[in-house]
Specification:
The protein is mainly alpha-helical. The chain has 2 helices and no strands. The protein has helices spanning 70-78, 87-91.
Length: 92
């Protein structure tokens, strides 16, 4: 077995630097750029005739003369007509 002596005062010689490929840090800046966007609109007015019922009422008035039927009076008399007494007469 080989025994290596350990020296507390030993320092390694300075090493040559190692260069890597550069790392790219990209910082994006955005600025508004107005772009005109044209939206053409065409308005078309269409006119349509639609039949709609419009109701009219004609009214006639007719007068009729009615006579008292003798037949209905005979039926009432034949059935024994009862004398009607008004309520005001009953209260007295």
């Amino acid at each position: 077995m080989i025994h290596l002596a350990y020296n507390n005062n030993f320092q390694c010689p300075p090493a040559d630097p190692v260069f890597t490929d550069p790392t790219q840090v990209i910082r994006n800046y955005y600025y508004p750029q107005p772009v005109p966007v044209i939206h053409p609109v065409e308005v078309i007015n269409r006119h349509h005739c639609v039949p709609v019922p419009h109701h009219f009422v004609s009214c006639t008035v007719k007068d009729e003369v009615c006579t008292v039927s003798s037949r209905s009076m005979k039926k009432r008399d034949a059935g024994g007509a009862r004398a009607k007494v008004s309520r005001t007469k009953l209260k007295k």
